[in-house]
Amino acid sequence: MNIEIINIGDELLIGQVVNTNASWMARQLNLEGFKVHQFTIIGDSREQILEAFQEAAERCEVVLISGGIGPTKDDITKAALCEFFGSSLVFNEEAYKDVESLFSRRGYKVTGLNRQQACLPEDCTSIPNRNGTARGMWFEKHIPAAGRQGKTIFVSMPGVPFEMQAMMTDYVIPELVKRFHPGAIYHKTILTQGIGESFLASIIGEWENNLPPSVKLAYLPQPGIVRLRLSGTGDDKATVRSVVEKQAEQLSEIISEYIFGTDDDSLEAIIGKILRAKKQTLGTAESCTGGYIAHLITSIPGSSDYFKGSVIAYDNDVKEQILGVMPETILKFGAVSSEVVTEMAIGAQTCLSMDYVIAVSGIAGPGGGTNEKPVGTTWIAIATPDEVFSKQFLFGDNRDRNIRRAALQALNMLRKNLVGQ
Question: pTM value?
Answer without folding.
Answer: 0.79
